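Q: What structure does this chain adopt?
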Amino acid sequence: MRNKNQIKTRIAPSPTGELHIGTARSALFNYLFAKQNGGEFIVRIEDTDKERSKKKFEKDIIEGLEWLGLKSDELFKQSERTAIYKKHIKKMLDSETAYLSKEESKAEKGKQIEVVRLKNKGKKVEFDDMIRGKIEFDTTELGDFVIARSIDEPLYHLAVVVDDHEMNITHIIRGEDHISNTPRQILIQEALGINRPKYAHIPLILASDRSKMSKRAENATSISEYRKKGYISSALVNYMALLGWNPGNDRELFSLDELIKEFDLEKIHKGGAVFDIEKLNWFNREYIKKMSNEEIFENIKENLPYEDEILEKVIPIIVERINTFGDVKKMAEEGELDYYFKKPEYEAEDLLWKTETDLNVVAEHLQIVSDSLEKISDNKFNREGIKNVIWKYAEEKGKGSVLWPMRYALSGRNKSPDPFQLAEVLGKEETISRLKSAIDKIE
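A:
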């Protein structure tokens, strides 16, 4: 049996679009607060808007929350709760705290419909917000507002109040854009004679120009987009937790369990939190570094269908250059990694460094480099060993003049890792073979 004093929070997304990062951050704060206090976190799908609600969005929301690790203790759908709303509407009509009003339909001109309006006495409403302190509203200007289209069709404010009461929600943690909804909901609570939950209105997530993070923002706004881009769920959770909250020190990396211990609702800032994609990328890179070699290999292999032996050698280079595992796929599509797996194609003139014009000099440098590499034993053919035998010569003749043609002969690209790293990955035999091919191309 549930303890009536047990803390219970909820997230109540509408399935009219994909799971937004702002909704996900609100869900995270609700989850952390509930779990920190030994309470429950529920998900309530607000799908009473029959025209705009879609099953695919409902699926996206539920799967997105699960991917983030925010497992709900219960799942509800408003569309399955019509009888409960009807009972409460009838109670308000019977107690005369609400009344039926015949009005012209906004959807169909000339058609009369019977809506339910709350009797509003126009009083001042005051509540204590756990983040913002005392907030006061004069409800006179709200008038007798509509709470249901009919006895069978509750509107948002009534459904929310009824659900929060019936589900024993103790704390409502939501975006600050809901502050203006609170006085209406308090009036409905009072009309129904039910207890008021505690409120905490968190700052909105802002785009870089400090505007509200919308679907037109420069960064992705839905959780599914971040999944597709190859972000790690725990990195996204870690970053979202610090959008509007910090532990009071310089620490930045937290697992979900650590966040449950450290999170403090009353330390949430009042000001909006600017979403910084570079900071999220930093978090993601940190989480990639914490992964085992096997996990990294499996994630990279999904996007690079190459032979395992070379792939394992390339992994450290790839990890240095990516923010997400989705970047690996992009690198592969753009041919950035092809040179590891097949001989590059290029023109002999591409081997010339900057303003140099004599390809015979280039061929001489490449021959000396090749001869030097021949002398390295197989077990010492690594980045340091390769650099040791070439560096002195490169300094004498000009590092660009020697190392540029070496690197280009191995990769065939203007941008690639340094030639010592390339040679280590390719191995002695393939490296010397590519250098000889470059010399042949010149001659």
